[in-house]
Amino acid sequence: MPNPGILIVEDDPIIAADLEDRLIEMGYRITGSVRSGEAALELLQSEMPDLALLDIQLEGELDGVETAEIIAKKHSFPLIFLTSNADDVTFARAKGVQPHAFLSKPFRGRDLRHAIELALGQSGQLSGGAPAPSSLATKTLQDCIFIKTNDLQVKVRLKDILWAEADDYYCKVVTNDRTHLATLTLKKFHDILQNDDFMRVHRSYLVNLNQIDKIGGLYVYIGKHKIPVGRSYRAKLQERIKML
Fold first, then answer.
1. Angle between helical axes of 64-74 and 88-95 (0-180°, round to 10)
2. The predicted structure's pLDDT at residue 123
3. Each residue of 184-201: pLDDT tens digit?
4. Strand pairing category for 138-140 and 144-149
5. Within a 10 A sphere around the Cβ of 224, how many other Cβ atoms?
6. CA 217 to CA 187: how far, in whole Å?
7. Angstrom distance (rounded) from CA 42 to CA 150
8. End-to-end CA distance of the chain
9. Residue 169 has pLDDT above 80, yes or no
10. Strand, coil or helix: what is 10?
11. Which residues, 6 or more positions from 109, have their beta carbon under 8 angstroms from its beta carbon?
């Protein structure tokens, strides 16, 4: 299967060239790079991308939001807005199109990469309406999970997980060896695990109870790391752990 193709709709040639370089380095194909909404709509008649990056301010009569509205009526691939004007009015207009992400310029390469991975993972569609290979970036077996890292699915044993930490729409899965970034929310990750050894102790933290070394009033300690315990989670934590 070819790498996902991305359409760039950006009127600034310097930014467009930079985006092309970044996306190619990330392993994506560029299906086209145009400066106007009209050119984007014309290009879609001959080649369909798996995702489109749209600046809101474009050349021509159509701006990025208007272009996205037309695209959304005919196609189902995910859309990500790029803009240097992130005021409330602009955001409200963009939100109405239900984009998969909204990135303010200048944005970090990491944020761009994560937004694209999340959009492709959640869309459940590739170009032409074919179902995506997997809508989740994490797959689980009885005693391990597989977390997508670049083009590989990396096995992580549940017993080796120390904790998981919310990171916006992603979650960091921490082991002794490394930290994995799973492209799903902490709640979804917890649901997938289906393992009683893991417990939410804070809205942003899920811990492996078997890895806890010490418990304080406001924190649990895993090795040298201290994990905050939310007030609403303390009673349930005490119920789960035998405390003399």
1. 10
2. 62
3. 778 888 888 888 899 999
4. antiparallel
5. 6
6. 24
7. 32
8. 57
9. no
10. coil
11. 22
